[in-house]
Amino acid sequence: MADAESDGAYLFRPNLIEGEPPAELSTGNPEDDQLLRQIAARVPLDQPRDWKHYLYVPDEPSAQMVAGLLLRMSHKGVGFEVEIYAPDEQGESYCVTAERKNTILTAELVRSSRGLFETITSHVTGAEYDGWEVAIDADDYLEAST
Known about the structure:
Elements: H1 30-42, E1 49-57, H2 60-75, E2 81-85, E3 94-103, H3 107-122, E4 128-134, H4 138-145
Antiparallel strand pairs: 1-3, 1-4, 2-3
């Protein structure tokens, strides 16, 4: 999974929730289930949030190809904002992010999105889908915890 953003707007797995997820939060992927459960435990899932996915590829041509695929999908209504980040050091991977604004998370959306990103990366040698994070602002979190 990707690290939390430095501004603190993204939630990253602070503690594990034990047991089987309820059916409405079951995505079929243990990491996604855990993250979705933690989000649902802190804020309402029916509120739109910014949702960011991370894909890592070995080189710039691969990054351009993945970004191009995601941008073409955006023109078909999927709606991703795509960015490419070059590695800081030689030999590290390029990072491609795909973000959807104002997304209401559901287990089905998480499941289908993982399938999409894993399909894309399966066609690029050395690429991997590294998961997602969602924006939760402090006001949301504080309201839900009171």
